[in-house]
Amino acid sequence: MKLVAYLGVDWRSRLTERVLKDLSVYLASHYGLGMELDFVELPLGDMDEEELPLVILEGEVISKGEVPSMSYLVEAVFERLGSQVRTKLLGFPELEA
Question: What does each C-alpha distance from 7 to 14, 28, 41, 47, 93 come to in angstroms?
């Protein structure tokens, strides 16, 4: 799966970058899923700062103007995969057989 993040120079963008890198490690270690991450850093004034960070998964905007949570991102990935998912105690999905 491909995930693209448009980032500014603010703290929300830095935190989003960290969450997305952690997401990639989490999906690989727990589910064996590979994630291609692309980060596009925009200079000040190139885009409305209220819209950053902007996160796009497989061509669809999944987060705009806020730091997405890990549980939200994991859920979005599994929605795109079309898998049947059962939620565990901490909010992370568990694949059903």
Answer: 8, 23, 5, 10, 27
CATH C-level class of 2-95: alpha beta
Q: What share of the chain is helix, strand, coil (3-state, %, to 5)?
A: 35, 30, 35
pLDDT tens, position by position, 13-70:
999 999 999 999 999 998 888 999 999 998 876 666 778 999 999 999 999 999 999 9
β-pairing verdict for 54-57 and 2-7: antiparallel
Q: Which pTM value belongs to this model? A: 0.79
